Amino acid sequence: MMAAGRSRPGGAGSIRGGRIRTEGIMKAVLPLFVFIDACGWEIIRNDPFARALAPYRRRLESVFGYSSACVPSFVSGAWPEQHRNWCYFVYDPKNSPFRLLRFFKWLPRSITSRRRFRRWLSKFLQGPLKFRGYFDLYNIPFEHISMFDFSEKKSPLKPGGMNRGGNIFDFLEMRSIPYHVSNPAFTETQNLANLIGEIRKETIDFAFVYWPDLDGLLHMVGNKSSEVPAKLRVYEQRLEQLLSHANEHYQEVRLYIFSDHGMANCTELLDLKAMIEGLPLKFGKDYVAVYDSTMARFWFPSEGRDPSSADTISPRDQITQRLNEVSQGRIVPDAELAQMRALFPDRYFGELIFLVKEGVLIVPSHMGQRPIKAMHGYHPEEPHSYAALLSNRFDIPPEATAIPHVYNLMAADAIAANAANREPISESEIMDFKAAKAAQYAEL
Question: What's the rounded Cα separation, in Å, for the pair 59 and 262?
Fold first, then answer.
């Protein structure tokens, strides 16, 4: 984090960006971006959530994938095919960091399948593996885990955290713009208190807040539970508290509340794993699969080898035939993956992608053994996939229609705030800035 912890000099005045700021004079602008995980358009569309604070509201297209794809997309302004952050587990035995874990297969499954054990082991391994971002072993079987690598070894919420390209924090660091970003290891209330402390010290020109708890709540109770609007009321109180402090120290607070996706209730369970395992194929030899909650991704290690006879049906064809019999989902063709900007020519994340319909949950899966009430990660055009953007700014460009476009809002407002907090901005500079901002969107 760049300069967010810088102490404020004492005395009658202090130096700010090359000019003297008199004590008691407020800073000019604070862009405040509040990311509420899973607070999708359908969650807030008919709810009065933050209408008094952020009356300008817009539905945003999400990206195809889970939070592992969504978060990197809005912090970078890029799509999955560009930043190469998509799904967590990939078939890559040569680079697998989990080889020693295969010996856990000898332990009773009553232990190794427990969520508490998996979380403890994930936390224990994160340091030795030098994983700097989110990490969870989930439910990958230990007898197969040495076949897989974990694709997100860095944190997208830190500089240098992308698999490819830069993010907003690289942008801020390169321009020496002081900022605050939430620490995912802290609770929501701890992060709120830390940001308020930075605001009071007037050390920052940009703030990024991350509140993840709504996502976990929705998974547990579904999107129709009375606990959901109750949680939104808690967030409103926090936002009011945050704005109260910000308005005491900044002449203008530019508030943006946004999400990465929504959440659909799970109304049908699908044991896809059992369907595939019913085929006369061997996992690890004929095929490898990762069963996510809403999709299954397949690789075919034996493809290209000579079959035992000319009449042999390849593993790919057998699995394709079986998947085509599943009415709850479909194989996503390359043309559609390319349209969603989630096609990877090297097939790093899977050679064949099967996606279920909204409301269907693959269970058991490599993400969990038991059903949950709600899930995300469906097709971006499904109703509950859409994200939301709420703001007190009426001039959000009409071209900002998808979550990667949030990056442009962050970058533009960070530049404007940093300039305003250092020197007054002339009318001509404002016009130049708006023109540059429009040009950025024209390139998307």
Answer: 11
Ordered domains of the chain (ranges, CATH): 26-81+155-264+382-442 (3.40.720.10), 89-150 (no CATH), 267-371 (3.30.1360)
Work out the burial of residue 197: count CB atoms within 10 Å of its CB; fewer than 13 is exposed, 13-18 middle, 19 or more buried: middle
pLDDT in tens, 252-274: 999 999 999 999 999 999 999 99
List CB contacts of 323: < 8 A, sequence separation 6 or more.
Answer: 296, 329, 330, 331, 352, 354
For the chain, the average pLDDT equals 88
What is the pLDDT at residue 140?
Answer: 86
When pLDDT is averaged across residues 212-217 and rounded to a whole number, the result is: 97
Residues 6+ apart with CB under 8 A from 116: none
